[in-house]
Amino acid sequence: MDESSAAADSFENGRYKYIHDIHNGPPEAIDVHRIVLQRSSQKKLLIFCFLALLLFASPPFFFFVQQLNLLTTLPWSLLVGGLFVRLLSQKLVKKESVIILPAFGVQLETQYGSGRTIRRFVPISKILKPVLNECVTPVTCYWSLALIIRGEEELMLVFKELYPPVKMLVPIWKAICAAIDVEET
Amino acid sequence: MTHAYNNRSGVRYMTGGLKVYYVPWKPFLMQNTLPTFYGTLPIIRTILIREKISVVHGHQAFSTLCHEALMHARTMGYKVVFTDHSLYGFADVGSVHMNKVLQFTLADVTQAICVSHTSKENTVLRSGLPPEKVYVIPNAVDTAMFKPAPERLSNNEIVIVVISRLVYRKGADLLVEVIPEVCRLHPNVRFVIGGDGPKRVRLEEMREKHSLQDRVDMLGAVPHANVRSVLITGHIFLNSSLTEAFCIAILEAASCGLLTVSTCVGGVPEVLPDDMIVLAEPDPSDMVQAITKAINILPQIDPETMHLRMKKLYSWHDVARRTETVYDRALRCSSQPLLERLSRYLTCGAWAGKLFCLVMLIDCILWQFLQLWQPDRDIEVVADATLTSFLHEEMSRDSFFFFSGTIDDIS
């Protein structure tokens, strides 16, 4: 099996990077769209969480340190710090991808910083249409891509954790629409 | 932009491509959200940047969202227009506080609009705004919807229609005095009362006391779509408000060909020509006399002629054109530096002026922080939607929902 992949498109905006590959292997061309959280953004987030923890946890921590010996507290603090970083990397998303397999369906992947990947597959017959929604919260307003699933009331979000800009969502939306149209004809 | 109503929240597109943002802040009192001062700054900034707004237009002095939006818009340097729709007093505690809040908002507004000359006087006195900044644009009526009945009603039985919220402000107590007297004096008169409110109980009691069940019909709350069908059953429209900046109800009645009897308060005398309205003092005996006079002039009234006159006098297109002129003037005003704007707040009062300055300074500081956290260029601008597809397709607007929260509109 010889799969040749061509990088059809890729561009980046300060926070996110969009990569579009087409794998021309058998049986048919597979479309892969990836949205990667930039390293600088990941680092910024980590630094911010660390600072926040320092700010809120340090007063009670120092209160306890005065009563205990420093030697015994140091390995504990390292352990707690290590656990904290591991927890964060599990929550921090590294990249999310959308793989469109024509005539089969759409696979949505979420890859976290720790390497853990969550995959969801949606058969093509179950997708009614992808929609671009403007979401309004009490503090902000952003675009999101969702799939209308036949028979279900709730929309399925394509990108669960990331908030990519609409310029990156539009090509993915068009590709899914095209795949559904091909299936229907 | 407004707050969410029941389960209506998110973005909706109305006729003509009007985009409405229903922001999910819960209303807590009389359709008003809790005054959060700075809480609405992030969402207002996001909406103003993504839609490339040039002028922010706020309505109604009672709306907290309106005052906050105007304050944040001024901080961020946008031009601001405010429309006042009501008259307020000067005496009671609520009015004093409201007037202070209004003074704060209007101290720095670019232009203001009032719905009648009386309202302009009232606003200028309450807020200390220079009169040159205030424009008068009266409301209008949709004459296409409010047409008279196809056949003229017979004059054997005279029907007097009252449609209003049954509250103190709208003179429900006056009605309680007037109706039995009129029924006694004129045996061929019948009343139709549409609307609901706290004073409804008093009107029901009046009905019982004078046994007027067959002469007074109480319809309960009438949805706006059905108002015309109620109006065309009558000959005379009675308005007993105790205060009114501009009364659209009497415009609707006149457009349907009814003769109006109203209390001579606020901006009411400015609304209709003298031959279409009979004015009275807000006093029961004076109103009874006015109704008698109206019944006597009734044979000379032609509903169709009235309707055609109203069509020429009032139109929403005219209001839109005049409002656009106000927007153009606002856009041409020069931007002022922060210090000059702050000095205007100082003139509001001895301690109030300093408080207002402080509030604005904190707003400016918060805005700078917000710009560091999320720079302007990170907020994406919304592309202009192609509207031709909206007009021709039958699309369910509800597909734009995502989150399940007196109209503030932003143009």
TrEMBL record, chain A:
Among its keywords, does the record have Hydrolase?
A: no
- The membrane-spanning stretches of this chain are 45-64, 70-88
Q: Which domain of life is it from?
A: Eukaryota
InterPro entries in the record, alphabetically?
PIG-H, PIGH-H_dom
Domain Phosphatidylinositol N-acetylglucosaminyltransferase subunit H conserved spans what residues?
97-160
Q: Which UniProt keywords apply?
A: Membrane, Transmembrane, Transmembrane helix
Q: Does the keyword Ribosomal protein apply?
A: no
Pathway(s) where this gene product acts: Glycolipid biosynthesis; glycosylphosphatidylinositol-anchor biosynthesis
- What cellular component terms from Gene Ontology apply here? glycosylphosphatidylinositol-N-acetylglucosaminyltransferase (GPI-GnT) complex
According to its UniProt entry, one GO biological process term is:
GPI anchor biosynthetic process
The family database entries (Pfam families) matched by this protein are listed as:
PIG-H
- Coiled-coil blocks: none
Protein family (similarity comment): Belongs to the PIGH family.
PANTHER family given in the database record? PHOSPHATIDYLINOSITOL N-ACETYLGLUCOSAMINYLTRANSFERASE SUBUNIT H
Q: What is the designated name of this protein?
A: Phosphatidylinositol N-acetylglucosaminyltransferase subunit H conserved domain-containing protein
From TrEMBL, chain B:
Name of the protein: phosphatidylinositol N-acetylglucosaminyltransferase
Stretches assigned to the PIGA GPI anchor biosynthesis domain: 3-92
Enzyme type, top EC level:
transferase
Organism name? Coffea arabica (Arabian coffee)
Q: What is the lineage of its organism?
A: Eukaryota, Viridiplantae, Streptophyta, Embryophyta, Tracheophyta
GO MF annotation list? phosphatidylinositol N-acetylglucosaminyltransferase activity
Family matches, as CDD domains: GT4_PIG-A-like
Q: Keyword annotations for this protein?
A: Glycosyltransferase, GPI-anchor biosynthesis, Transferase
Keyword field contains Nuclease = no
Could you state one GO biological process linked to this protein? GPI anchor biosynthetic process
| Gene Ontology CC | glycosylphosphatidylinositol-N-acetylglucosaminyltransferase (GPI-GnT) complex
InterPro entries attached here?
A: Glyco_trans_1, PIG-A/GPI3, PIGA_GPI_anchor_biosynthesis
The answer to whether the entry has keyword Cytoplasm is: no
Identify the pathway.
Glycolipid biosynthesis; glycosylphosphatidylinositol-anchor biosynthesis
Query: Superkingdom of the source?
Result: Eukaryota
Q: Which SUPFAM superfamilies did the record assign?
A: UDP-Glycosyltransferase/glycogen phosphorylase
